[in-house]
Amino acid sequence: MSTRRAHLEITGMSCSTCSGSVEDAVGDLEGVASASANYATDEGTVEYDPVETSLAEIYDAIADAGYEAASETETLTVMGMSCSTCSGTVEDAVTDLPGVVRADVNFASDEARVEYNPNDVSLSEIVDAIEKSGYEPVRDELEESQGASQRERAVEKELRRQRKLVIGGGLLTVPFVPMMIDMLFGFVDVASPVPMAIAHPPGWLEFVLATALMATLGKEFIVGAWRAFSNNRRANMDTLVAVGTSAGYVYSTGVLVGAITGGFYFEAVAFILWFITLGNWLEVRSKARAGSALRELLEMEADEATVVRDGEERQVPLEDVEPGDVLKVRPGEKIPTDGVVREGQSAVDESMLTGESVPVEKGEGDEVVGSTINENGVLLVEATKVGSETAIQQIVERVKEAQSRQPEIQRLVDRVSAYFVPAVIVNAVVWSVLWFLFPETLYGASAALGSWIPVLEPVGGGPVVGGVPVFEFSVVVLASALLIACPCALGLATPAATMVGSTLSATNGVLFKGGDVLEQVRGIDTVVFDKTGTLTHGEMTLTDLELVGERTATDGGTVTGLERREDLESFVLGAAATAESGSEHPIARAIVDGATDRDVEIGEVSEFENVPGHGVRAETDRGSVLIGRRKLLEDAGIDTEPAEETLIRLEREGKTAMPVAVDGRLVGVLAVADEVRESATETVAALRERGTEVVMLTGDNERTAAAVARAVGIDPDNVRAEVLPEDKADHVEALQNDGSRVMMVGDGVNDAPALTTAQVGVAIGSGTDVAIESADVTLMRDDPADVLKAVRISEATISKVRQNLFWAFIYNTTLIPIASLGLLNPALAGLAMAASSVSVMTNSLAFARYDPHEDYRLAVTKPLSWLRGN
């Protein structure tokens, strides 16, 4: 294959060194012939061999270098896929296009998520590629005129089409029912209640009905089989049905015209086609139900908003609301969009967002989320995010992304499925030929099996003893062995479960980035918690102010002349608050707020320096101020020994204590405290009970860290204190190097590297956008207990995947040999094929009733009450 040229827009480059870093990162990839980057224009060009490296690898290399190549992502609904082979065909067709970075096609949700470089390929070209592969793409966007997405309309259209096929096919199949009843009575050697004339209609009538069914129901499978073969030289589920029914139809037609001797199998053709069409209809219905939770979330959005402009209230459509608009929300109304409360106080029902039914109190300055319900009191809310930027829209987008990324186990299933259909065809042909060549030998073996499987006796009594012609029986074996195999069940097993699992988690306030993350969480054996804002509320308050060496503090310098203790305390607190006024750190805010509450004046800052992990130094109108860890002062030549006893006492109380120096003199100690979250202790206990190791990382000193660890039940040996922000990732990496599978839970910007380093990064909902973007899992609530939800949903989802795969494999590995030995009627084989895929979807949908507050391992021991939703 010839080389390709990619034209990239690269953001983040600020100098020639940056462009050189991009060129080196991409140029090191195998198959890259040349790479150039221009930081002045933010552009880059790469020539590469697509056989040796992919565009996705080039994008990843640029990201690893610290930059970003522009791309767009679109979600397309793809109708017409019948098994995982079809989704593989679509995926190959799209990824073969120059400019497509990656494509994930989910057969269970009928969706394709495509990331592409708009400089090299257009969305219309992607749509054309899907159409040329034989499937029907639909761009998932809203049409204002109808208010429903094109995907929803496409699904409804497909449901109507399948329903018409089921009803029409059923009417054509009804005349064959007496014949099937007569046949079943014959199997158990009991006189049939059906009159002979009805049970065996004229052959020409059977031919007419079967022909009509082949022209309607059968056409669906024949076209699908031809499409798969002509476009990609592949075989899929449609191939199995098309070959199996065509074999029975052609053979029976040959008997009808006298070309060969034997019996008719028109009734088997009729029931096969109707059973499988019925299964397809039920499958489409199940898929629609599996995705309904997301649609219900979107339907929770308000249609209108009451906007207050120039003192007047106006009702406007939701799409007309802009950031900065002030919205009036009355009791019982939905909050139209994300925002901040400017006036009023109320309780807000956020259950649709977090899964928790207890309303949350909201007041001035609190953030609210669109689509949640104002319980009581009038709120004036300033809109901050609208349209696609709102939390509910982001949740839906996150879930769609999660559904497009499948667990590692699915890759194994895909590899098996790629060979499954060809293997089934080869198996059916081989056994058909063997039956034709060695009928007596094989009949002896099948009759022996039939003696202990009485309902699976040889069709018509066998090729020799029953008088059925050998060729006829070999055709029956061919059809049965083809029709009993069900690649649908294998293909649906994983995506159906992950689709339900990711939606279930979203409605319970837990967002996974992908099905692969769902799988990774299940294997976690170590959970690392950041302390501040995760195990604690992250809302520091000033608790103590201790003077150190009053006599020294009043000897000369800036503090000369201060005799009263109250004045000394005000001076120390004022100096510290002035220095901290330039910082946004929670400790800094606590000191500033503490000074404000005590009516201490905050002065001016002329110079400010934040020393990450140590404290601050500042030039103020109160003098040169240092506040932070001991080391910060000691590095400046200030002896902290006079404050040591006070520092130790406060730290043992679980407080963060900081010495304060003014103009090179130690003048006092401030202490702030952060309350431990109510659920932290229960969460740690539950994790340890599960056998999970729990570790705490904090920048606080060892005594404060130990006090918090004792409060929440973490082993003192698992506490890492005085960890600088840049070192958190190193501690996580060290744990993983020792063989642990680590989940990191944090909320701040300084946690982002550690979240990325961990095998699974979890950002709690109060965290910053940077932390959430870096995380694999986002918890919508500020509650570490939701870590347990994430673990339980992960375990439940992967367990459901394995259940589905177990039954799918058992079904195929058990019934394919039975059909190959001539022990199964083709019509029953078609029924079994349809039932297997429907059963996988039904099993997955039952999972939607799971309550993640309960351990899944306990829930599955009482399946009846669980399925009832009790």
Give a structural overview:
The protein is α+β, with helices and mostly antiparallel strands. The chain has five domains: 4-81 and 88-136, Alpha-Beta Plaits (2-Layer Sandwich), CATH 3.30.70.100; 150-292, no CATH class; 313-390, Calcium-transporting ATPase, cytoplasmic transduction domain A; 510-535 and 677-792, Rossmann fold, CATH 3.40.50.1000; 539-550 and 560-675, 3-Layer(aba) Sandwich (Calcium-transporting ATPase, cytoplasmic domain N). The protein is built from 33 helices and 30 strands. The strands form six sheets. The protein has a seven-stranded mixed sheet with strand order 18-30-29-28-19-26-27, sandwiched between helices. Strands 10-9-11-17-12-15 form a six-stranded antiparallel sheet, with no helix packed on it. Strands 20-25-24-23-22-21 form a six-stranded antiparallel sheet. Helix 14 (408-437) packs antiparallel against helix 16 (470-484) and helix 17 (487-506) runs antiparallel to helix 30 (786-820). The chain is elongated, with a radius of gyration of 35 Å.
